[in-house]
Amino acid sequence: MSMVGLFWITGSTVHIGAPPNEPHAGVLVTEEGLTGIGEEQSGQWAWEDVRNIEVLAAPVRSTVGKTAGILLDMVITSALGGVDDGPAMFVHFETPQGKVKLTAFAAALSYGTEEFGLSSALLEAFADGRATPAALFAWGRDHQDGTPQRAERERLLAEWGGDAKKA
């Protein structure tokens, strides 16, 4: 398992955020599109039908207060004997049938602003056909030895299409 940007990558799966704990929500990335996981958000959407995709409420390291609040929440949850799924993120996009709103849980306490931006751009590239998730799956099969350092994660996201400009 490795985390690169917003993506949790294994040898066979890619998720936006962490894989869900049953029966909680999550978002699976496939070669064909997106799959909502969980009791209240099951469904599949082909990349060619996904437009204007964005991830909202991701814990981005833009403020110290936000990170401190996340840490405090985790400490309180642990102290009370609970298990925290991590901060909730919301994957919003449009399809010909209307707007879709999915929930995923962050796999990290916070993401760097550059890494978040590259991840968002990569999702847009999947949606408009400039890139496919194939590179993430191939990389995941060959690199199951942990999460790379920040500079390498940013390089990978850019290489996979996260820095491509819309035509």
Given the structure, what is the number of helices? 4
The run of helices and strands is EEEEEEEHEEHHH
Decide which structural class fits the backbone: alpha+beta
Shape: globular
Rg of Cα set: 15 Å
The termini sit apart by 34 Å
Name the helicity range.
25-40%
Strand content: 25-35%
Q: How many strands, what sense, and barrel or not for the largest sheet?
A: 6 strands, antiparallel
**Which strand order spans the largest sheet, edge to edge or round the barrel?**
1-2-3-4-5-6
Mind sketching the topology for me?
Elements: E1 2-4, E2 7-9, E3 14-16, E4 26-29, E5 33-37, E6 43-46, E7 51-56, H1 64-79, E8 88-95, E9 98-105, H2 113-127, H3 134-142, H4 150-162
Helix pairs in contact: 2-4
In words, what does this structure look like?
It is a single chain. 32% of the residues lie in helices and 26% in strands. It has helices at 64-79, 113-127, 134-142, 150-162; strands at residues 2-4, 7-9, 14-16, 26-29, 33-37, 43-46, 51-56, 88-95, 98-105. With 167 residues, the chain is α+β, with helices and mostly antiparallel strands. Helix 2 (113-127) runs parallel beside helix 4 (150-162).
